[in-house]
Structures are given as C-alpha cells and as structure tokens.
Amino acid sequence: MDKIQYTPIGVIRSPFKQVAGMPIQPAGAKGIAGSVEIHEMFAEGLKDLEGFSHIILIYHLHRSRGFKLHVKPFLDDQLRGVFATRAPRRPNAIGISVVRLLQVDRNILKIEDVDILEGTPLLDIKPYVPTFDEREAVRTGWLSSRADVVAGVRSDERFKSAEE
Asked: What CATH number should be reported for the domain holding residue 28?
C-alpha cells in the first residue's frame, strides 16, 4: 500500500486543551467559539468563503495513536466496528466537523460549534451546502435511538493510547 502524505493548511484554535470533557460532536458544542488560522500561503484560497454560514473542517486527529477495529463509542456500551462510529482512534486519524462560520478576517476564520482539540492541524475546508450534503430517508444504524443525547455527552479517556 502506498503511503499518503498531507500538509496542514492551518491550525484550529479552541478552548479545549484536553480530550477529556470535550463535546463529542459539533451538535453538542452549540455556541462554543473557536478560530482557524490558515497559513499565509493558503490565505488566498479563502476568497468567497464568507458567503457560507457553515463549513466542513477536515483535520488530523493529532493526539490519536493506534486504533482498534472494535470500539466502545461514547454513545453506547457495546463494542461496534470502528467504521460504524466516529471514534477518534482510527486507521487514518482524520476528523470532520461542520461548524458555523461567523467571520473571515484575512487568514483567520471565526467559528462556532467547535468540538475540536486546541492546536489540531487543519487539512482542508469545504463549504457546507445543504443541497449537496443533506440526504432524504437517512438510516442511522445503531445510533438511531442515541443521537439525540449527543449534546449532553462529553469525551472521556476511553480512546487514550497506551503511550499516554
């Protein structure tokens, strides 16, 4: 298998310095403010972004080490396949969050609904477009009876790696 390498385009700033106690999804982080600092060499790529109310942040889960194919997710007490969860310890430590875009100021994005650890390397940004991103007749698998409690659930140490 070929190795894939990415270069971060910026860094995400948030009030969360530790994994424990963080919201586990943006839906549980309503109103939590943060920012994104885009590296100067990529700043011109932000042109026209201010017209969007929400953006999709794609980032590297930089504190995640190793993975398991079966995990006990935050919203369940049963082991689930990692690809049927949003658990942070994955074969490729990639995270996504849909956040509210408040302002674009040169290379700084002011955002809300932040569920991301301070200092997280940003890999990409995409505009959130309901026509493109929303789907009808969606099935949510094992999460169908649990997703509505996400706002009250916070991260704990269950995905902490052995090295930490």
From this structure: 2.40.30.70
